[in-house]
Design goal:
Order of helices and strands: EHEHEEEEHEHEHEEEHHHHHHHHH
CATH class of the largest domain: Alpha Beta
Radius of gyration: 22 Å
Structural class: alpha/beta
Number of helices: 14
Largest sheet: 6 strands, mixed
Helix content: 25-40%
CATH architecture of the largest domain: 3-Layer(aba) Sandwich
Strand order of the largest sheet: 3-2-6-7-11-10
Distance between the termini: 42 Å
Shape: globular
CATH superfamily of the largest domain: Class I glutamine amidotransferase (GATase) domain
Length: 406
């Protein structure tokens, strides 16, 4: 079926390894990938012929949107940063190669396809050169039993601006050829990123030694024991350390990909892609990856109305006492509930929202720094520079020059 992004095939009854009757092993998937979902039944193909969804090679192109990127953006706590310091080169992001192996995680594979593989240039968003790569020809079998035929081998890894490694429940050790290709990517100054437990492959390739990194919280102990030279930061959504970036469990890969888009093209482009994906445009890398208590399904108990109200009053003073009063809770109860439902503190959340509002005002142009500071709740241009610098590692003036749209 031309025009679709993959070639998918059902797997027959004969399998390989681990004593399973098929190439998908549910026990192996549960133990490594940290999920307890029910097995998915793959029906046998009709008339012995597998069912395919074709992924044709994508044509090369020039992105239709180009903005000079920021030198860096560093969320508070230093959990998404460049070890190279302030002189690090701007992030170039025009081409993306995604590497898959047997046992690939379907959701994590879908993330870079959705962020980078769809042409949204008619909406004024970037169009990326995009390659799905595997070492060998033939179907790459996912952890849930379907197969993907990648149109490319490893050659695109030598030219792509970003190489994304998708996790595998079958193999955490890259082949010598793949490990060498990943190292060459870093050596030539391009970016390598992993989704979820794909960090194991980067560590095996030696790319994480002496660097900060993260992975799925479920595998923290195993990762620490196996890679003592890696500075593991388990309780965050993603970490960017120089040319290597790692995301935590499952959906945090979306946050990492949008963060990289934001670094290269600015908040407006990242927000545009997020809007199409119907996901939050930005969650700070330092936010906890494991939210202990899900948001209550009962509207009377959720903090959503308070958060919505706060977003409309960012220009006002918003201490915990005022937010707690709005929620009809004591300050202590409100602070505890807030962290349970959002994974961060009220103060950090308010500061992030103010920085995000300042970004939008700076991009729009038309007002001075004092007015931007007042409207975003920082009070003065000096406080705006202080907090903006801590969160984005650049000045508001530099951000405006880079991403101003009017």
């Amino acid at each position: 079926m031309p025009g679709v992004l993959g070639e998918v095939t059902a797997v027959g009854a004969e399998g390989k390894g681990h004593g399973c009757q098929k190439r998908y092993c549910q026990k192996e998937e549960d133990e490594f990938h940290g999920r307890k979902s029910a097995p998915i039944q793959i029906l046998p193909p009709v008339a012995e012929k597998p069912s395919f969804v074709d992924i044709p090679p994508l044509l090369r192109h020039t992105p239709q949107v180009r903005q000079e990127p920021l030198s860096q953006q560093v969320p508070e706590h230093g959990l998404s940063f460049s070890a190279a310091g302030d002189d690090v080169a701007p992030l170039r992001l025009r081409s993306v190669a995604v590497v898959i192996n047997d046992g690939l995680a379907a959701f994590e594979f879908a993330i870079p396809n959705e962020v980078f593989g769809i042409d949204r240039s008619p909406e004024g968003l970037p169009k990326f050169d995009f390659w799905v790569c595997s070492e060998d020809e033939g179907p790459v079998i996912s952890s849930t039993g379907f197969g993907v035929l990648a149109p490319y081998r490893l050659d695109p890894l030598d030219t792509a601006d970003l190489v994304v490694v998708v996790p595998s429940s079958k193999n955490t050790e890259p082949s010598p050829a793949l490990a060498a290709a990943l190292r060459r990517t870093v050596e030539r100054g391009a970016m390598v990123a992993s989704m979820c437990t794909g960090a194991f492959m980067l560590a095996e390739a030696g790319l994480l030694d002496g660097r900060r990194a993260t992975t799925h919280w479920f595998h923290e102990a195993a990762f620490r024991a196996r890679y003592p030279d890696v500075d593991l930061v388990p309780d965050v959504l993603y970490v960017e350390d120089g040319p290597v970036a790692t995301s935590a469990g499952t959906a945090s890969g979306i946050d990492l990909c949008l963060h990289l888009v934001r670094r290269a093209y600015g908040a407006k482009v990242a927000n545009g892609i997020a809007r199409r994906m119907v996901v939050p445009p930005h969650r700070d890398g330092g936010q906890a990856q494991f939210v202990e208590t899900p948001v209550s399904a009962r509207p009377a108990e959720t903090l959503a109305p308070v958060l919505d109200w706060a977003l409309e009053h960012l220009h006002e003073d918003l201490p915990v006492s005022r937010l707690a009063e709005r929620a009809a809770m004591s300050e202590r109860t409100f602070a505890r509930r807030f962290r349970e439902e959002t994974g961060t503190t009220p103060h950090q959340w308010v500061q992030l929202q103010r920085v995000a509002l300042a970004e939008r005002l700076l991009e729009a142009g038309g007002m001075g720094m004092e007015e931007v500071a007042r409207r975003s709740g920082f009070g003065s241009a000096a406080m705006l520079r202080h907090h903006f610098g801590r969160r984005r590692h650049t000045t508001p003036a530099n951000y405006r020059r880079t991403f101003r749209t009017a």
